[in-house]
Structure prediction request, 262 residues.
Amino acid sequence: MRGSLKDRLTVSNDTRHLLAVRDFTGRMARQGPLPPEEVHKITLAVDEAVTNIIEHGFNQGEKGSIEIEAEWEGEKFRVTIRDSARVFNPDSIPSPDVQEHVKAGRKKGLGLFLMRQIMDEVKYRYKDGTQNELTMVKYVKAK
Amino acid sequence: MAGFRIQKEKLAGGVVLVAVKGFLDAHTFEQLEKEFADLFDAGSFRLIVDLSGLDYISSAGAGVFIEAIGTAQENEGNIILMRPGPNVKEVFDLLGLSQIFTFKDTREEALQSLARVGA
Prediction:
């Protein structure tokens, strides 16, 4: 059983920080026994989540911050993303039929689809009435 | 813009080879979107995109290809993708795009594939 390892990164709502978000997530994910392709996919899922917040959570020109917390707990890698953007509950958005979506040339909504495809758990809550909190979990051995 | 680069090369028969390198994400996808728009404006609808130098793609980047292939095919063209690395191919697979795009390993194979459309 592995011990606990936890770190946190806070970025402003600018897509130029996505590279730093991916570097941070990859560095944390590699601390555990995940194969490189899983590390890449988790990094992608976190990129998609943060991208959604940056692109849809804030008004034009509005400044905001996004906190990404990554933690290993035993065989479980958990990423918690907190932001003060407008309320966005991904549970309210059904996954698109990706084949139909893509054939129709639609490109929005694919990030959420990837997050659900990649991670074992994707959970949302509106914390303390002021903060979106998205928690995504990957188990080393799928449950 | 750091992190993503595009190189173009005109090939025989009006085909354009677009080589992309680096990271194609929500920060950089507009560069490729503009490149495709410029090519389409110039009447170039038969494209080969060399993905071998692409280190990373997210759905924002994949979305550019989804939109562009529609425009290319509506104008008797196509977009052939060449040599994606495993991480990039994985994203195309996860999104089901591998059934929509044609992947080739060499420029010659890609050109042959394009010769069958719109020529």
User: Anything to note?
Assistant: Chain B has four helices and five strands. The first helix of chain B runs from residue 29 to 41. Chain B touches chain A through 25 residues (CB under 8 Å). Chain B has a mean pLDDT of 94.
